[in-house]
Hints:
The structure holds 2 protein chains of 2 kinds. Chain A is mostly helical. Chain A folds into 2 domains: 1-81; 82-130. Helix content of chain A is 96%, strand content 0%. Chain A has helices at residues 2-81, 84-90, 92-129. In chain A, helix 2 packs across helix 3 (92-129). The radius of gyration of chain A is 38 Å and the shape is rod-shaped. At the A-B interface, helix 1, helix 2 and helix 3 of A face helix 2 of B.
Amino acid sequence: MSKFLFGIIFVMGAGLSYMWYENQNLKQLNIAYETRDAQQKQTLNKLQEDFALQAESLLNLQVKNQKIQKEMDNYLDIFRRHNLTKLAIAKPKLIQTRVNNGTKQVFNNIEEISRIIDSADDFKLQSDTK
Amino acid sequence: MTLSCSLIPNKVEMISSPLERKIIHPNLPNSLDLKEPFWYVVSKGNFDEFVEEMKKQNGTVVFFAMSVPDYELMSYNMQELKRYISELKEVVVYYRTITEVE
């Protein structure tokens, strides 16, 4: 009888030990899966944020490019609306002043655009030091 | 057995964070410093006056001439360059925005 009881206790002990090790393994697996899940969620969120930023920036880029194109069209429309040859024959001094002012304006605009590009570094440096 | 093997497992804390890319932006080119040419508009009415002006300036009559349609072409080219620089500037801003580390 005692041998039988000892046998049952031994089998139960072995079973419990096996289940305890299995439980430990499952816990470790669970931690690993939770970590992977968290990493994937984090990566997905980052990708979504990046995509949203890119989409917004691309939209801004398109809007600005349209504005730039419109400015150019407006400027060139002056030549379509006026006959410069006739005007130059009739009022050379007036056209000369306007042509030189126009050149000065275009050059100033181009210089201004290049200054904005150049100062982008300064903005970055200022924000870094803050 | 109870002394050597603890029944309470050690809590393992795992923290992960995405690796931030560090992009070094190159220095942008210096701004433009353009010199403006002077345009003379010359017709039959002021041609002699213009020739006299050239003689005063250069000691002789010599100049580069351009027809009105060619002047219009030059203006168009300048506007194209301005458009290209402006659009390229926006592309630079775009790349700087999306690669900027928060």
